[in-house]
């Protein structure tokens, strides 16, 4: 019985790398207004269309030492980083929920959150398209987790409470700091988070996001960043942590990999 969980994890990590590659592409194209699906991947510097050999997650980057094979221009290290991060998030989802439909939805949530994190770090925006997609996915996840009316009610109430609280926080920060600290994208994200966690999970989401935010802000300032930092990465981390903790499927402990 040693093989099945090990293979599950290997396949999940591999899928995570591939979806991470997609996340990197979306994070690059979406803010520039380029069609996400259209056209082959190209080198951002020489425009050379990239072949299969250039697009193997992580390995292509390592083999070419982070340079384009055609023009020698650097390929940002954030691409392999995004791929590895997505793979890790996929594996965490499998650990939390066990095999099944839930883990697929958690994986898609991870992809959306990685895209949000990458774009918010670079442009200080959370794109509406991704928030909307995650809202739809969150409704589907609730339907899967709790088909009763109470489940839907909790999701709806979570979204309403989330956006209200975020709006208050935004007004409060604006008062204290005299500038916008919580953007409209962040406010909308609170509604998305409320859908995923339900009204009962909202307090946990805010606690985790707050903790992540404090750590992130410290790192941001240590690196000499602006006084106002993007809050999206902390919100994304907080949401993923709460959703995984509540996923409660049939967990697959890693110990299965070692002895059975
Ligand atoms: Zn090139």
Query: What is the alpha-carbon Rg in Å?
Result: 19 Å
Number of strands: 0
Structural class comes to mainly alpha
As residue ranges, the low-confidence spans are: 250-260
Order of helices and strands: HHHHHHHH
What portion of residues is helical?
55-70%
Shape annotation: globular
The structural domain count equals 1
Biggest beta-sheet profile: none
**Number of helical stretches of at least 4 residues:** 8
The molecules bound to the chains, other than polymers, are: zinc ion
Percentage of β-strand residues: under 5%
Average pLDDT rating: 88
Compute the separation of the termini in Å.
Answer: 6 Å
Task: Name the descriptors.
binds zinc ion; mainly alpha; globular; 260 residues
């Amino acid at each position: 019985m040693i093989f099945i969980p090990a293979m599950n994890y290997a396949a999940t990590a591999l899928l995570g790398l591939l979806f991470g590659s997609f996340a990197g592409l979306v994070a690059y194209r979406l803010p520039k207004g380029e069609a996400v699906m259209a056209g082959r991947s190209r080198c951002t510097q020489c425009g050379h269309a990239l072949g299969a050999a250039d697009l193997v997650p992580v390995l292509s980057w390592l083999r070419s030492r982070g340079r384009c094979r055609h023009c020698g221009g650097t390929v940002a290290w954030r691409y392999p980083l995004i791929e590895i991060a997505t793979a890790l998030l996929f594996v965490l989802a499998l650990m939390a929920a066990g095999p099944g439909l839930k883990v697929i939805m958690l994986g898609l949530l991870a992809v959306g959150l990685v895209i949000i994190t990458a774009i918010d770090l670079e442009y200080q925006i959370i794109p509406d398209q991704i928030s909307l997609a995650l809202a739809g996915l969150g409704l589907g996840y609730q339907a899967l987790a709790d088909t009763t009316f109470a489940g839907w009610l909790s999701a709806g109430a979570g979204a309403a409470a989330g956006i209200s609280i975020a709006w208050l926080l935004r007004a409060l920060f604006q008062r204290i700091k005299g500038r916008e600290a919580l953007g409209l994208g962040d406010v909308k994200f609170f509604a998305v988070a409320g859908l995923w966690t339900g009204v009962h999970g909202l307090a946990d989401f805010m606690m985790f996001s707050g903790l992540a935010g404090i750590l992130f802000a410290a790192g941001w300032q240590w690196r000499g960043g602006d006084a106002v930092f993007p809050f999206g990465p902390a919100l994304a981390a907080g949401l993923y942590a709460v959703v995984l903790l509540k996923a409660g499927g049939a967990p697959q402990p890693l110990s299965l990999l070692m002895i059975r």
